[in-house]
Design goal:
This protein is mostly helical and 445 residues long. The chain has helices at residues 3-15, 24-48, 50-57, 61-89, 91-108, 115-129, 132-143, 146-178, 180-201, 213-219, 233-237, 240-271, 287-314, 319-334, 346-374, 380-409, 413-433.
Amino acid sequence: MSQTESAAHAEGAATGLQKPLGKYRWGICAMLFFVITINYIDRQIIGVLKPVIEEDLGWSEVDYGNIVTAFQASYGIGLLVVGRWLDKIGTRKGMAIAIALWSLAACFHAAARSVLAFIIARVTLGIAESAAYPGAVKSVAEWFPKRERALGVGILNAGANVGVLLTPIIAIGIAGAYGWEAAFLVTGGIGFIVLWAWLRFFRQPAEHEKVTDEERRWIEQDGEDAAGKPLSWGEAIRQRQTWYFICGKFFTDPVWYLFLFWLPDFLSRTQGMELFPTGDSGILATIGPALIGVYLLADVGSIAGGWLSSHFIARGWSVNRARKTTLFIAALFALPMVTVTYAPNPLVAVLLIGLGTAAHQAFSSNIFTMISDLYPRRAVATVAGMGGAAGAVGGILIAQATGWTLELTGSYTPIVIYAGLGYLIAFIIIHLLVPRMEAAPLSEG
């Protein structure tokens, strides 16, 4: 146990704090869940409506590829910049600006009629949406003690999976009834409802009238101070504590992007599954229910991974042991993915991929939470943004690798072998970089 952890445990023992009756922090966590959910709906809806929009506006596949690349590139660049911006201006103001901007960008899609207009909309959306995860993780660090943060991050992280599941339901239903433009307007409008809730209910715990003194003492039990200047990129890049997150995201985010964009094609190629039931295939042989199953399992993994490390800490484990054990368990659960191309039937394939996505979300929840274990609150969003940018680069690389592998071999096997091994590789690198999870030695600010 590091000196930081020992001091925190000693302080908790000395104060004899018990879990407070006040639960307002969990209401904040629920709001962060909805922020991430609408964030994912707004980014995914163009993919669901792609065939309809292509037919209406006459896009080519190259046009659509350029539009998708515009989002991915702007999202990655935004992650690099927006984290430090959030640490500088604060989560309440920064997230409000970001939610307003990405909701406007979502609505603007409805007015776009050229490829250039869609690219402008996607670039704006990508930059604004890049604030979501750094801001949400920083908010958890502000509202939860260390022993509860992994569960809080796990819950908000589950919003990504719910967003993926809800997008086709919302998009297809509204577009079928009122046209594809209406789908963008409705989802953008929902963002403004979320913005209202954010401005109405989010404050810092010390400033919030709904937080009892007892709950405030519980939140502040680790003795952290949010004051001070934001962490500079130069100082962050010199810390091995920053590199654990950069490497963790670089090696694991590509697996998430792989299944987010290639899973329907994978199930079609390897299991002969179809978009719609035909003949005797039945609904269970179609891709839609398979996607639902995969992302429901991912939800379970996100919450379970956050709960497990928080549970270990509640049992008296050090933060280091609790986080690392959970990461290792998640890495082991991802390993069976190496065999998924040889799955004997669609059910086994879905279970193996679902186990992998659950492992990803459990792993992700804990490496996000480790930022606030290693850095003060004033630096959390900066580090989260830098790691997120590395993950976006990894996502671009896996897309290129997948395309070339399929072109040359026609097989997903080399790619899913990496998908299964990536988490174990990341775990080993993380442990080598932060073997005892000592707080980063920052200059005073």
